[in-house]
UniProtKB/TrEMBL annotation:
It comes from the Bacteria. InterPro entries: Amidohydro_3 (IPR013108), DHOase (IPR004722), DHOase/Allantoinase_Hydrolase (IPR050138), DHOase_cat (IPR024403), Metal-dep_hydrolase_composite (IPR011059), Metal_Hydrolase (IPR032466). Pfam families: Amidohydro_3 (PF07969), DHOase (PF12890). The keyword Zinc applies. Residues 49-234 form the Dihydroorotase catalytic domain. Its EC number is 3.5.2.3. This is Dihydroorotase. It comes from Thioclava litoralis. The keyword Ion transport does not apply. One of its GO terms (molecular function) is dihydroorotase activity.
Amino acid sequence: MTLFLENARLIDPEALTETTGNVIIDDGKIAAIGQMSAPKGAEVIDCGGKYLAPGIVDLGVKIGEPGERHRESFRTAGLAAAAGGVTTIIARPDTTPAIDTPETLEFVTRRAAQAPVRIHHMAALTKGREGREMTELGFLMDAGALAFGDVTHVTTDTKVLSRAFTYARSLGALVVCHPQDPGLSRGASVTSGKFASLRGLPGVSPMAERMGLERDLALVEMTGVRYHADQITTARSLPSLARAKAAGLDVTAGISIHHLTLNELDVGDYRTFFKLTPPLRSEEDRLAMAQAVADGVIDIICSMHTPADEESKRLPYEEAASGAVALETFIPAAMRLYHAGAVSLPQLFRAMSLNPAKRLGLAQGRMQEGAPADLVLFDPNAPFVLDRWTLQSKSKNTPFDGQRMEGKVLATFVAGRKVFDRTAQSA
């Protein structure tokens, strides 16, 4: 069926422009963009002057299959993603067991087929994510792995990591690492400083991130591997990142939407829904990260969606699980940056859609003729109070519960098929 989306404000993250126009979708792709009339027989959808952008490509989503399906399944993650304007999920390998063999990867690929959005997979860089022996990268790539990483399990054996980087380089594979010195960060639950001392919580210095990043960048320089830092959250890391890019290393960096919109003081009186990995940083760091996104020094914004059940969060702060769900709150949280004037809408979707798609070699993330019709229609100004119990995710661990937010997803399209419609949800 041909769709005609009329009266939309179109966000082009590649040209960094906002324009008013119409979009024709045919055979799952964008057939035309401009001020044309509806083709004969097309289904017409009036966008009402709201914003239409490429769907979010979310690099780094935790899904509980296998092993923790009670926290999140492919079905519920897919529903949450559709409701949040995320049209492509890149699932993390930190499952139980880890996605470290072609057989496990093929299992999750089959399971993911039930989701209403596109789901691709990362695979573990080392077996069991234990940092001792690298996985069969070539076989995993043949089975569909888009990237490799051990998520928050930082490899301490530099020789193992250098061998894995070298082999990944020979395959042209992308390696995703978590820049953090594991010794300094072991046992920490907040960022060190006055707040940590007042609360009596174990902290980690922001320097731990810079130290981990500089080790990784030295190995990138030695091996020439394609490298992505999953989260850069401190201003002290930015000069090292900028130098690596200026030197021509194949390096990109990401940050979670939570680290762009929250700071260490939000933890308040030991609120475990704000316990993340890495921990929330200072307001000065948060502002520096927002500027780095606007400047393009940080390439990608992700959700780092990490579902956790009530039992693992309702514990003393130090013992509670880290992480928060974010698929459905991604756009409302991002609108905080937009309304604060820190980042424009085209800059946001460059980091949320275009750049992750380009880094992974995907065709999504673009507002241009011939691109896949993976789109999100949203109102950046629609106000609401978030109730976590209305979220589609199985787990409800969001730091935004009860908060006033702006920005609602109105409809989500994957390959031209409407997979979410707020009007239908409200009926």
